[in-house]
Structures are given as structure tokens and as C-alpha cells.
Amino acid sequence: MRLVLIFPLVIFVTACASQYIPSGEVDAQRMASIKSTCLVTTSRADQTEKTTAVTPEMTSLVAQRLRYHGLKVRIFQPVDGITLDLSDCETITTYSVKASWDIVSYVAGGSISIANQTGEVISSVDYKESEVSLTKLGGNKAKMDALVDAVLGK
């Protein structure tokens, strides 16, 4: 009888987990050879109110995790009308974060990609938080760390 009651609960909790979905195969060996990246943040003009949460805090969290894995990181903040010179970047990392509201604001999803100088995406991962996830109100650091780890194949 206990098993009959516990089994649906286990299935429900499992279905409510966060998902980190690679957009293709992550080549961990290739990612390990990268020594540096330029982290390009989203300009304010590209953000829509209440849907993106690319903030200095999020940028800092992404940069810290990239550095944790041994990458040298330079941060670029686009300014409308000015083209960024990324020609001396080994790779270019971009990310976006979707915010949602449920008692408090929380990270509901996001994506991160790393491209080479020609713009070819060499690794990309999307993150989606389930609406009924037991961890959705958890800290941003853990979510961003997991997103960066996934894109690096760690």
C-alpha cells in the first residue's frame, strides 16, 4: 500500500525537475581546450520587460563560473549604435536569462552559447525550470553554475 502512494509522488517530483538541454552534442574535449572567452551581455534594447534578467549580478555569476573552470574572461557590454570589436577573442560567450514571478522573482529559464571567432556555435545549452519545480525559488548562483557547467561539458 505504501508503494502505491509513494510511486506517484516520485514520478511527480521527477517530472518537476529543472532541465539543462544541450542544443546538440557538447564536445567536452574541445571545450577543455578553450583558454579564454569574451562574455557579451545583452543590451537593454534587446531585453523585454519582465522576461529577461540579464543583470550585473547574473553577468558576474556567469563570469565567476567560467573563471572557476580556468577560462580568462573579458566582459563586454554593448552600447546601442556602437559595434563591439571582438576580433581578438578566442571564443564569444553569450547568455540570456528569463525571469518569472511567484511570490518572488526567480530564474525560470535561460540559455548560454559559446561560439568561435567566425560565429560558429561550438556549444549551446538551454535551461528550463518547471512551473511546479520544488527548486524554482532556489538561488540564482546554483542555477547559473549548472548552466555554465553544462555548456562546458562538465
Brief write-up:
This protein has a single domain (18-151), classed as Maf protein (Alpha-Beta Complex). The protein has four helices and six strands. The chain has helices spanning 2-15, 28-32, 56-68, 140-151; strands at residues 19-22, 36-40, 72-76, 91-102, 104-116, 121-128.
Structural Rg? 17 Å
Number of helices: 4
Order of helices and strands: HEHEHEEEEH
The fraction of residues in strands falls at: 25-35%
Q: List low-pLDDT spans.
A: 3-18
Describe what you observe in this structure:
- The protein has 154 residues and is of the alpha/beta class.
- It has one domain (18-151): Maf protein (Alpha-Beta Complex), CATH 3.90.950.
- Helices cover 29% and strands 31% of the residues.
- It has helices spanning 2-15, 28-32, 56-68, 140-151, and strands spanning 19-22, 36-40, 72-76, 91-102, 104-116, 121-128.
- It has a 6-stranded mixed β-sheet with strand order 1-6-5-4-2-3, covered by helices on one side.
- Strand 2 (36-40), helix 3 and strand 3 form a beta-alpha-beta unit.
- Helix 3 (56-68) crosses helix 4 (140-151).
- The protein is globular, with a radius of gyration of 17 Å.
